[in-house]
Amino acid sequence: IPVFDVYALRKQFPVLEREVKGKPLIYLDNAATSQKPAVVIDALVQYYTGYNANIHRGIHTLAEEATAAFEATRETAKHFIHAAGREEIIFTRGTTEGINLVAYTWGRANVGKGDEIIISAMEHHSNIVPWQILCEEKGAQLKVIPVDDAGELIMEAYEKLLSDKTRLVAITHVSNALGTVNPVKQMIRSAHKAGALVLVDGAQSTVHLDIDVQDMDCDFFVCSAHKLYGPTGVGVLYGKKHVLEAMPVFQGGGEMIKEVTFEKTTYNELPYKYEAGTPNIADTIVFKTALDFIEQTGKEQIRQHEHELLQYATAALETVPGLKIIGRAKEKTSLVSFVIDKVHPQDIGILLDNKGIAVRTGHHCAQPLMQRYGIPGTIRASFAAYNTKEEIDELLLGLEKSIKLLV
Ligand code: PMP
């Protein structure tokens, strides 16, 4: 078992050495994107200096090396989320593209007039808008699972929404605005009983929880590398093989074909059927380095550390007069969203930045959720493996000083 040493871990992240506004950077915006360890940055340079080539087509050495590295990421990603086969791992640009791919292909083939798609009140815009577009086009209806005051989904309401009209349940595993971990396994069981498929948005969960798509039994799972200590511009769409096989193609072009004539084109096998054109080779290759980094650091150790940060931050923030934590679910990842009486979240965000502290303020791409709580937005501090209790102390100090200035 690797020993978890947060101070040693921090040394692996070059950006954590920089200063912002003359103060050491305190990066608490990890739910937006995580920082990258030196191994990931180095791997990117090694690819471009060592074996940059287009993949799958060439027979020369560089092309073979690049192809092998690219496919090695697929294998690692498969293990990371416990998929049954490599053909179930499709590389995308990220979570957003994964969801849109499913909406455009599976959605257009399987959703019709009068059908229903269920989402929840805590979805990120990227798990709302693609379904809205689909529903408008098809005359289908979007149904929304409500959330309670604590930020948990109301399960009785969900069960009532399910019917033989339900084609798909698209649900986030973890809320990016509240940190709530949703009971996806139970929800998937209910959806399947009703004859619906389930897409799980894993953008926030994959870095914090153990993902086992087979145990979960989801039909689709999507995530983004950049929230997993990896590069931007890469994500994974997992789909059950028989579901992906039955789906129409997405983009047309090179790589996704078997044979092209002007009369008829036949399509490539999975996963290439959904990977038209030259993919983001460099970042996909480097994504493996990021996943290996997480495994080597120790998923369980990271989770334990992040849990301690969550407990510590929650207790500390509760002592601030006028501060209210939004999202008090029993099961949460390492994220605290809050509002403060009489101050606008953005003003706090600016004052904290002056102290080198990076938090996210605003609606977190979840405007309907903010409307549910009757607030314009929150201040969100989200923690990664490299954050420390000392940083949370600084956040608290920064908040107290900012409130004094503003109120
Ligand atoms: N869903 C959730 C829950 C998210 O937190 C995010 C990223 N903020 C997304 C979807 C979209 O991910 P990406 O921007 O990487 O496509």
From TrEMBL:
Superkingdom of this protein's organism: Bacteria
EC number: 2.8.1.7
GO term, biological process aspect, one: cysteine metabolic process
GO MF term list: cysteine desulfurase activity; lyase activity; pyridoxal phosphate binding
Needed cofactors: pyridoxal 5'-phosphate
SUPFAM superfamilies, A to Z: PLP-dependent transferases
UniProt family annotation: Belongs to the class-V pyridoxal-phosphate-dependent aminotransferase family. Csd subfamily.
Protein name: Cysteine desulfurase
